Amino acid sequence: xxxxxxxxxxxxxxxxxxxxxxxxxxxxxxxxxxxxxxxxxxxxxxxxxxxxxxxxxxxxxxxxxxxxxxxxxxxxxxxxxxxxxxxxxxxxxxxxxxxxxxxxxxxxxxxxxxxxxxxxxxxxxxxxxxxxxxxxxxxxxxxxxxxxxxxxxxxxxxxxxxxxxxxxxxxxxxxxxxxxxxxxxxxxxxxxxxxxxxxxxxxxxxxxxxxxxxxxxxxxxxxxxxxxxxxxxxxxxxxxxxxxxxxxxxxxxxxxxxxxxxxxxxxxxxxxxxxxxx
Length: 278
What we know:
Layout: E1 3-9, E2 12-21, E3 26-30, H1 41-49, E4 53-57, H2 74-87, E5 93-98, H3 101-112, E6 117-123, H4 142-154, H5 156-168, H6 170-173, H7 180-191, H8 195-204, E7 220-225, H9 237-243, E8 248-252, H10 259-262, H11 264-275
Parallel strand pairs: 3-4, 3-5, 5-6, 6-7, 7-8
Antiparallel strand pairs: 1-2, 2-4
Helix pairs in contact: 1-11, 2-3, 4-5, 4-8, 5-7
């Protein structure tokens, strides 16, 4: 079970757990909140079958990675990703993020550049900026996110139940595109995450990525469900059509936030086409 050290807290190291499978061109996948690297299982299977090397990892605070008391911000998340790419000496990488993981992709490229990265995929994107302000009204008010954080801190299991129902649009796709077993497995994974991380990452969602986006100089795929309840397209993906005009933009009809599971065939086809683009 491989780990890399990305820092220290008190008497012990902060470690990221990662999985590294297959041979061929490397694809590094960054998971969404509140799951872990294993949530990419359908994409990993498709990419491995197509002859790619696939690396997934658990963000600090989630999965089998360390659960420190701090570092739940995008500068730190991007630094963790940089340490992983450096430790594995990866180049010509397709860097893919889902949901919260799209923030790592954007902040990494803006901070560390594209020397190691050939292209980037943003699935269910978080950028550019979720918080509504006077000068940038799209988005949601601070009170909404304060409410999320309060709910997560007050009764984390109940918060996760509601969040995951909207994550999958379970009222629409329960029993068809997502089973009760999958919903329960996601809840079990989420419940094992650091209680501190589950709350602190809600504040990280409010990171302003608008200055990061112009620094991206690799081909980009943006893909999102048009029924995304977690990161609604008018505040996220639709704004990226203007801010990343050269990207390939795909909308999944009827897709919820969790398109990597509910609409995996469409996502996988788009990814496989994208990773061979030169």
